[in-house]
Predict the 3D structure of the following.
Amino acid sequence: MSAKKAKRSPNKPKTRKEIRKEQRKTKKIRRLEYYTNRKKPGQFVRINPQMAAEIYGEDATKTLKESNQGKLKNQVKTKMEAENVRDKEKKQQIKLQKDMNKQRNKQLVEANLEEDRTIRRLEKQLKLNKRKSKSVPASFSRDGLDYLLEVCDPENLKNTALAEQQLVEVNNEFEEDLVLMTENTKNPTDDLLNSSEDEIEDEEDFSESDTAEIPVSKKRKIEEIDEIDRKKSQKNGEESDWGEESFEEEETSEEETPQETNDGTWEDIYGRLRSKDGSVVTTGQNYVPPAARMASESGPEDKIRSQKMERLKRQLKGLINRLAESNMHSITTQIEELYMSNSRNDMNNTITNLVTEALVANILAPERLLMEHILLITILHANVGTEVGAHFLQTIVKLFDEHLKSPNVENKKLDNVIIILAQLYNFKLFDSKLIYEILDTLAENFDEKHVECILHILRNVGFNLRKDNPIALKNLILRLQKRASNASDELKDNSRVKFMLDILLAIKNNNVSKIPNYDTTYSEHLKKIIKGFIRKGNYVTQLNISLEDLLKAEEKGKWWVVGSAWVGNSENKTPEAVKETPNTFSQKLLELATRQRMNTDTRKNIFCVIMSAEDYLDAFEKLLRLSLKNQQEREIIHVILHCCLQEKTYNPYYATLAQKFCEYDRKFQMTIKYSIWDKLKALKDHSAKQISHLAKLLSHLFVEKGLPISTLKVVQFSELDKVTLRFLRQILLGILLHEDLDVCKGVFEKVAYSDKLKMFRESLRLFLHHFLLKNLESQNIGNEKREVLQHRVKIVEKLLIGKEIRL
């Protein structure tokens, strides 16, 4: 054992076993290095020599140290070589970038030179290089490129800089505009009357030679102005000196101009064919008036209109055929949109014809169907305008008059007409006065058909009549009982007459159970849900029209429709309705009228009536009693505007009076619109106080719907000066700061859906952003007013872009 454990002599050669053992250890070391370097490529991992010695022995430790030192030297050398390569590549890249920039600059210079050569060649071809004038060439204007030259004009640049400076000044005056539109105004109507001569400003000249107030443009035509009336007023010496050429029609038209044919004959103004010498050429044909010829010879415009009407009829018919309670809201909304894009007269006629075709037939219309159609008319009457319900009511009353003259028991058209009228009254479209007149008309004849019609009314709205006017119902019952007692024996024994008397007694005693099959559940249900279909702020306006007014509307006119002419009740005229003359007014008032340059009797009368009235209603009635004609009526508006601008402080009396005339007749609305347009053209000639008064008057008219805000569409928003900008801002501040938000929204809703007013809506939006919202941050304004203005501008902006968002 001792011999085996003894150490081997160093000089003794190794055995094969020892050699294989060393080889195995070396192999393990290499394997360890291989797998270690393989897990972390590109890095040299130093193996702990002590650990290697413990595992593999001392000889392996020496070998491992030598291997690690060699690899570390190789790694450092490789790293230095890589850094040198990267530096070299970076330098090459910087050099390449510099060369590319030089090449690009060279190409840009060459492109500019080439562009200059092209411009000179084109100038030579267009002969622009020989122009002496600096005005914009016509070719540029035709192509819409004139703005390019304006940008390069030094004078335009100078004007732009001045305009910017003015806008800065206007922005600084925002707080002043806000105070002007929110300050308390006074109510007395005699401020001018109590002013001394020195206090009154005579800035506007009302002399005969002054035509500043005249709407001279021949394009402005009011529907009510007739050429015949104008000529008559000239003969009678009643023509106003506001301007002889105002609203003047063309003296000749194409139809009145004689046109010579190929054979030398020509047609005179009476439609007669004449030869060259002027003698009448006789033909075998009869004379056809020009109006009849125009009606028979339909041109391309007539065809286009007929196609448009046919398309409109198809659209409305499709909507009305699908009408039901479930889709009532969507159908009314679509019909209202059609009202925005079509003529109201065409819409009223088409809807009325379609509804009457659907309901007025030889058989009784289903009760549910009839009520839903009447509900549609009622909603349109509230949302679109009273002329919708008035037109439908007038048509139904005409049908009633036609069928009443030829009663037929088997034909149910008159029954349907009566039920339609009863349901119109049930939905509060007109007052009980009309339905009582219809009952009186039916009671006068009192035959079997008329008794049946009376039964329809009593069964549908008998208890409503008892509630609205019980005295009239009592008188009706007495008349019907008297007529029944005096009737023939055959009619007395008629079951309908007996049934009618039983229903009358039940209604008189308020006994619902006595009326068989009496059920108003669906009717009451529709009357409840109608509030959800009517827009907020609107309501069903009850028309107080008599039967005679509706039947004689073609002769006397329609006083219930705004803008329609009406001759009035001639039998009710009294001697008190006479013209007031200047002699009836005080001397002080006449002197004031003279100082204000009221240099005609008409103007003096108007001025004195306005200044001496107790209130605006008194002034309105007295001005109507002046019985002015045609052009003289327009002077009412001119005098109102003049007095409003001449006040020392703003007086809302004039705005309220102007609003009353706008509601009374559309011709006054047109007159004030044209007068405002003339004022806008000469806005610089007015003082700041007068501009503020005019802004407050317009704000009142816009809010009260006397005028639409589209009246301001004539303003060029892209070329605003300081005066016009402040004027518009004051108007918008007056509207936005109104106490009722719904009223404020209603002003802008009228222009929110018209395609023709798209540019006007965009201009309003930009104006609100640049000259209202931006000023709120920089000015010393209370937090409450700032929040109100910011909130309402956002609401108005949503209204103005509502249609675009929907599209």
Summary: Strands lie at 266-267, 273-274. DSSP finds 36 helices and two strands in the chain. Residues 139-172 form one domain.
